[in-house]
Amino acid sequence: MELKEKIRKTFLERFNEPGTVYASAGRINLIGEHTDYNGGFVFPGAIDKVIMAEIRPNGMEKVRVFSIDINEYVEFGLKEEDAPNEQWARYIFGVCREIQKRGGVVKGFDAVFAGNVPLGAGLSSSAALESCFAFALNDLFNGNTIDKFELAKIGQSTEHNYCGVMCGIMDQFASVFGKKDNLMRLDCRSMEYEYFPFKSDSHKLVLVDSRVKHELKDSPYNKRRESCERVAKKLGVETLRDATAEMLNTVKGEITAEDYMRAKFVIEEKERVLDVCDALVKGDYETVGKKMYETHDGLSKDYEVSCEELDFLNDVAKELGVTGSRIMGGGFGGCTINLVKNDLHDDFIKVVTDRFNEKYGHKPEIYDVVISDGARKIED
Ligand code: GLA
């Protein structure tokens, strides 16, 4: 059954009357990793995999919500002390609270949701969930008066304040602002952004999901951020966006070797995003691909957020002549994103699947990327 029909049917069974259906998307990121919380650039796009929810105000002071995929039902109130224990419900609770903290209105509602964004694959299923509810509650209770950037920030603050992940703005931004056939370059300092049409006749973007799961909470993600902040402080700049390789070298002897490697990666990655944008405009996919490999090396060796399986996927891609390949998202598992020539596409998928399976005993999941719209109302 299609996602929407499944949600409609379940909602009616549980809550008797239909509500309104909303969705928001997972994301990819072509390049610009771990740059968002350093005030740098990112280059994401929303994809055709979504979290979808049917929602209806219930006239009560509580939220009643059922997750089809987890097969769990949770109720919670709308005050700070009403926070639920279930992690998935905390995303929704956090969005409600963050809207309220900003002076927005949230009243009780019933909801059923499900999705096809793979969990823990680095495709930002949690941002899709947050953005779906932020968009919906803006529409249902606030007459769409909360602007789109604020909706993204509501999702980000939810991660910070209710889920323990000190993430940047990229995932929620991509999920809210995504536009079919367009990637977006976001300057995470000024928050200026630009759409870049991405439709290639010669190449495809392919995700290879190692199905090694990562959990960003309590993970080294927050530690990476702390390293960057320490170095920025040492350099007397607000974020590493304002730092250069020369500046970094002047404090090399005064910071740990680890902090130095982290900052070095971020400073280099910031430039790579701009180089990739220029190359894309010229249709120079070879340069785009070369930069992607450089990012992978930096993420693996300097930022140390890769893992054996992802390095293996990257090696196989390189060996097969794939134009570009790298680990995508926060790291510690999940997907590689690959820029593959059309005529290599089928062979690449076959060989990478077989070789990974041979080595790790399970097949990776393959997704052809379809750049799609972000948060939206699906049906009244
Ligand atoms: C996660 C975070 C983002 C970003 C990426 C790395 O997806 O949620 O804010 O930092 O990792 O680029």
Would you give the CATH topology of the largest domain? Ribosomal Protein S5, domain 2
Main beta-sheet strand count, sense and barrel state: 6 strands, mixed
What's the number of helices? 11
Structural class of the helices, strands and pairings? alpha+beta
Rounded to the nearest angstrom, the distance between the terminal CA atoms is 20 Å
Q: What is the 3D shape?
A: globular
Q: What small molecules does this complex bind?
A: alpha-D-galactopyranose
Q: In angstroms, what is the radius of gyration? A: 21 Å
Helix content: 40-55%
Give the integer mean of the pLDDT values: 96
Order of helices and strands: HEEEEEHEHHHEEEHHHHHEEHEE
Name of the top-level CATH class of the largest domain:
Alpha Beta
Q: How many strand units?
A: 13
Strand order of the largest sheet: 5-4-6-3-1-13
Strand proportion:
15-25%
Under the CATH scheme, the architecture of the largest domain is 2-Layer Sandwich
Give the low-confidence spans. Answer: none
